[in-house]
Task: structure prediction
Amino acid sequence: MQAVAVVGITKNYVLPDGSEVVALRGVDLQVAPGEIFALLGPNGAGKTTLLSILTTLLAPTAGTASVAGFDVVRQPAAVKRRIAVTFQELVVDGDLSGRRTLEYHGALYGLDRRVQKERITELARLVELEDVLDRKVETYSGGMKRRLELVRGLLTDPEVLFLDEPTQGLDPQNRVNIWKYVRQLRDQRGLTIVLTTHYMEEAETLADRVAIIDHGKVVGEGRPADLIRTLGADVVTISGQGAGDVLAQKLEALPYVMHVTRHATDSQHLFQIGVDDGDGRLAAIVAIAAGTGFNIQRVNVNRPTLGDVFSPIQAKHCATHKADPRRK
Ligand SMILES: Nc1ncnc2c1ncn2[C@@H]1O[C@H](COP(=O)(O)OP(=O)(O)OP(=O)(O)O)[C@@H](O)[C@H]1O
Ligand SMILES: [Mg+2]
Result:
């Protein structure tokens, strides 16, 4: 059984003037138990909408979804008992102490007081909040508030934890700490974790599998390393001025080129070229560019990151793709 199964989920929001916003257009995905799954996408992609549907807060317009084996529309109470969610917008009340916030939450869920006390101690220790637990939440830093949210979500011992942008607005140090806790949770408790993010790095370091979502559709899915591999072993980036169309055609025709993405402004072109061997092909690529009269200003060779997988989507108006020749 999958921890999360989504089939053909569509969501249209109806605005007060009667017009509609299509937020999700036929999303399919599956998350296995114990997996850390990241939904990666730019602002407005539909990440929060999908999370809201999976956590039963929002009804889909069409399609079905189940969480921990229960249908989110027909069995919302059973789903709610098995999940926890932390939101993009923090909902903690500043006037209470961290401990009181957690106790209220536990009471709301009818947790046994002794169990609750033990869990608060254990979880606060896990996320290194024990020293500030009796301070008012309004005195917490952004990172502390996020960690408190994490403890609040975990207090009810969920099977599936949904985290909407768990590190938004945090500095790199705090972000790395949250990643560490998330990974520990999965390793120690076998929790399934579904998180949304628009940080490539977050998806790449944290997730077992990633779905890239854009304009309400899943446009790429797989293990981070596999998504990266579809780009080629290396990415040669060249920027400069000249006949971009001609160069793009020439590059695409090369047998060792897997993927060409072009970002163009008025006079500047930036090419990201996925190749089998960056160092080995660099000289040939530079020679071809020079042969078309392209005036090269910068060149470099990198291993691809999820950012490279992602940027063609953001810049898709000027992207050209080509099938991976190794996949035949
Ligand atoms: N309550 C709402 N009413 C109308 N439209 C909405 C509502 N909530 C979201 N939308 C629209 O649905 C689309 C998806 O929004 P959503 O919040 O799910 O995106 P997101 O991927 O979470 O973005 P972000 O990265 O900014 O959090 C956007 O076009 C947004 O404007
Ligand atoms: Mg969002």
